[in-house]
Amino acid sequence: MITKYFTKVVVRFNPLGKEAKTARLFLSSIPPTQRLSGLSLKNELLNGASTASPLVKVTFKDKTELELNPTGITFQEVGNFFDRHSRKLRLKETIEA
């Protein structure tokens, strides 16, 4: 997954829910060096009584925000969803250089 263009990441999930594996894999795919170099990362754990829905939300360097519900989808699908926009930014960066 291309995480170079992420500026803000918000992940909200129930650690005992179906979405936990996908959300944790997503969080683990963000390199530690990027976490230290300005990426704003917010992780919120939900309990069983919570009414909030699970969420993975990413803000990119061009201020585009994409979000999805990680319930019922795989990590590969989440990666593909966010990579589509990252590839556009990489192409734009390559053209401008």
TrEMBL record:
Pfam families: MRP_L53. GO terms for cellular component: mitochondrial large ribosomal subunit. Gene3D superfamilies: Glutaredoxin (3.40.30.10). The keyword Ribosomal protein applies. Its main location: mitochondrion. The keyword Ribosomal protein applies. Keywords: Mitochondrion, Ribonucleoprotein, Ribosomal protein. One of its GO terms (molecular function) is structural constituent of ribosome. It is found in: Mitochondrion. Belongs to the mitochondrion-specific ribosomal protein mL53 family. This is Large ribosomal subunit protein mL53. It comes from Lachancea mirantina. The lineage of its organism: Eukaryota, Fungi, Dikarya, Ascomycota, Saccharomycotina.
